[in-house]
Amino acid sequence: MPIFVVHEHHAQRLHWDFRLEIENVLKSWALPKKPPRKAEIKRLAIQVEDHELDYASFEGEIGEGEYGAGMVKIWDEGEYKMLDYDNNYFKFELYGLLLKKTYVLYKYPQAGENAWLFFKTKVL
Asked: Into how many domains does the chain fold?
């Protein structure tokens, strides 16, 4: 199964980097607020550049003067199953320690070109 990871990133501003393994890279989104663990709480997620797969296990300090300078630690990680997707929508089930069940990433152009909404779905 493909993997996901959430990095807690203490850069210029604290944020969380949510990453999904898709086509041998980590598709990545920066979340200004902690990823939601309860259903229906929506978080803004800004899509950023893809990362190499080996970055999933990275924890440590990004040096001063480098892009993203600051402390990075793994906040959650695990495997996931893609349930549905297209260019503007991903629906997947996460199997992490903190993030579990079904989540959605939905393109949200009203907030900017790379803006998405990230949320846990309600169990029916």
From this structure: 1
